[in-house]
Amino acid sequence: MKIFAPVCILLLLTSCADDDSSFPVGEDWIESDTRVLYIDTMTVSSSTFKFDSVQVSSTDRLLLGTYTDPIFGRTTSKIFTQLSNSTYTLDDAAVFDSIALILNYDDYFYNDTTEVQTLRIHEVLQDIKVTDDGYFYNTTSFDYNENTVGKVTYTPRPIREDSLHLRLDDAYGSLLFNEIQDNEINNADEFLRYHRGLLLEPDAANTTILGFLPTSTIRIYYSLPNEVEDEDVYSFDMTFNSSYTFHNISSDRSGTYFETLAEQEDEIESDASNGMSYIQSGVSLATRIDLPNLNGLDYIEGNGTLLAANLVVSLNTATETTSLPAGETLSCYIIDQKNIVLGTLYDYDGAEATGTIAAESDEFAQRTYSIPIHYFLDEKSTDSNGHNWYLALLDPDNNQSVNRYGFYGNQEADEDLKLQIILIYAVYDNE
């Protein structure tokens, strides 16, 4: 946290614009001349840090795949799932045909989907259980059989198709089929004693991460030879149990700016990462904002009050491509000096304060977000521990996406892009 001496504040304010106005907000204001100062020169700094883990229980989207990013390294997402069904009966005359993994797209994807992808499916060897606090995290993992029950290749089409059908090994399908048909398995508890779950693991050479719905299934196809239509094919579904299905997201940051981020309290200052701070969802890289206390405003002559305050951060659009757009909002949290979340950022109306697009230009490849921080600064200035308060910026889909952002720091030469806070401060009774 930077501490400003009185002379420093006075020097800063020489570059602030002022405007003569009147504000009908009380008798003292009505009976006095009022100056409104626009202050955009207070020092604000940024850095990048990483939360230890991300809670990923019962997400609306499951992520699967891997890709390499020039800034963030290799990001990989696996899926652990427990299968379930309400009935476990098959006709004695039924004949096994095949088994398939059916993954339902939710239209989300990240990076190149034009290349052939490879997926390996393993049986899990441990009961899939939540951690002691009742959640799954992106770091949660379970032992699995190295032998696969399916290794498949495919070219993803997340926009043109609604699902991905991947045929698994007949031996695995026949095993499940026979256990159910022979009444070795008659209910969900018996099934889970034999088959605790599946791991869906992408090959390291893959180029994309795809989003799938939790309504995905394992489908067993079979026929009934005694039926009139001998060629009729029937099916039996084992659905993903959404309460015990989650994605495990990891990142290999070797050779990147972030390879030294071992603990949550570790930070990479923006001047050590090309003048930028970063966000990457899924693995929960976050931007930390260090804001000054406003004690220096006390040295402005006359009585005054803060009318508005906004944090302004601009996206480096070089971190984007046409197929990898940044989100339209940012989530904001209050954190302490060890980067532990203290709470959500709110405004004076009691609403959640988010970052929204304040300026955007396709011609100049610019996007700037504005975050209301008036209430935060007032609370920070009056709380006994406010000097240890900071802000963390994250993607709203932090637990179910791998979206990434790069923001300009305060070293940026272009005034329209540099990190800054903008204060509107009114002074009256200045005689």
UniProtKB/TrEMBL annotation:
Q: From which residue to which does the signal peptide run?
A: 1-17
Ordered alphabetically, the record's keywords are:
Signal
Q: Which Pfam families match?
A: DUF4270
Domain of life, per UniProt, equals: Bacteria
Please state what the protein is called. DUF4270 family protein
Q: Which organism is it from?
A: Leeuwenhoekiella marinoflava DSM 3653
Taxonomy of origin reads: Bacteria, Pseudomonadati, Bacteroidota, Flavobacteriia, Flavobacteriales
